[in-house]
Amino acid sequence: MRHYAFLRLLLAAFFLYFAWPLVPQATSQLEMLFWGVWLAFFVLVFGANFATLLKMSEPPVMEQEYANMRQTDG
Question: 41 by DSSP, 3-state: which?
């Protein structure tokens, strides 16, 4: 289910596209703190989904495929 990771990357890039023009307009300390935290969260989300896309990490549990596993009645 690598297409979910790709869609999340596109969504994160879309949010960055709209947020980037507002980042340089930050004048107060609180605004700079907000944009710093927002950009750090963006990097975490983008990096995690990029790692999933490159198969460097396991996908989330809900997206893992168990088609080859044999299920038994226990």
Answer: helix
CA 56, CA 48: separation in Å to the nearest integer?
9
Going from the C-alpha of 15 to that of each of 44, 58, 60, the distances in angstroms are 14, 25, 22
Give mean pLDDT in consecutive 10-residue pieces for the chain, a chain of 74 residues: 83 93 92 95 92 77 67 64
What pTM does this model have? 0.71
Task: Output the six-digit token pair for 73.
Answer: 């009645």
Whole-number Cα distances in Å, 24 to 14, 42, 63, 72 = 18, 17, 37, 58
Angstrom CA distances, 11 to 5, 23, 25, stand at 10, 18, 23
